[in-house]
Amino acid sequence: MDEENLIIPKHVGIIVDGNGRWATRKGLSRSMGHKAGFENLKKICDYAFTKGIEVLSLYVFSTENFKRSEEEVSFIMDLFAKNFRKDAIKFNKKNIKIVFSGRREQLRKDVIDTIDYVTELTKNNTGNIINFCFNYGGQTEIVDATKKIIDDVNKGIINKDDINVETFSKYLYQDLPQLDFLIRTSGEYRVSNFMLWQLSYAEMYFPLVCFPDFSKKDFDEAILKYNKRDRRFGGINYEGKNN
Ligand code: IPE
Ligand code: IPE
Ligand code: MG
């Protein structure tokens, strides 16, 4: 397919998976896998935006990842708190807005300070959006949205009858377009609590490669796979690829 005829998904989600296995296979500590994954993630973000993707949602730490060893969790938190301001300054120069999805509770103060710094720094940017899903869980997001809706109904800000799919979406951590395409690396075929609401009609792709090795070429391949899909949204596409 010619590059210029490609359909580019607007909102892409990436479940950044396989960092630990990548490192273990190389005889390295799992932490080294997180470091390599984090470096690669920044490269892939830049590349995805050059391809015309508008919004990237990146699943980098789940609410369930706190079950891991103290050493591994601390390493990931350090990686973020000690480096992400510098990275955000670079993204800011490219007019990229960085937002966060997830619960702030349980996070260390230096991590919360970094989140606040980055959010404030990039909040007026009008270009691409990176939605960093950090201490994120899809079920928790729906629960938190429901609580906020109940508060607003009790305060008379909205009426129960005004709650529908559109209004509900506005109460999620971020008000972003529906996810068009989900990529999960490392050959695991599950969503592990990622964007359960936003995934409703997303196309999904599960390459075998572990995230630190997920290259620009692999990203191009993912976009080609997306272009072979026939998105019907419950309707019938008589012109579609499968008819
Ligand atoms: C993804 O890689 C990063 C996080 C979940 C924090 P993993 O750490 O899950 O790597 P594997 O799946 O154990 O290889
Ligand atoms: C999902 O990966 C969470 C992130 C990538 C941040 P996990 O490695 O935690 O998921 P499971 O345990 O394999 O389902
Ligand atoms: Mg994993």
% residues in beta strands: 5-15%
Which sequence of strands runs across the widest sheet? 3-4-2-1-5-6
Number of DSSP helical runs: 7
Bound molecules: 3-methylbut-3-enyl trihydrogen diphosphate, magnesium ion
Helix content: 40-55%
**How many whole angstroms does the radius of gyration measure?**
19 Å
Low-confidence stretches: none
The gross shape turns out to be globular
Distance between the termini: 19 Å
The ordered H/E elements are: EHHEHEHEHHEEH
| Average pLDDT for all residues | 96
**Oligomer designation:** single chain
- Per DSSP E runs of 2 or more residues, the count of β-strands stands at 6
The description of the largest β-sheet is:
6 strands, parallel
Find the structural class using helix and strand composition.
alpha/beta
Summarize the entry for a quick read.
The chain has helices at residues 19-25, 30-50, 70-93, 109-122, 138-154, 165-170, 216-227; strands spanning 11-15, 55-62, 97-101, 129-136, 181-184, 203-205.
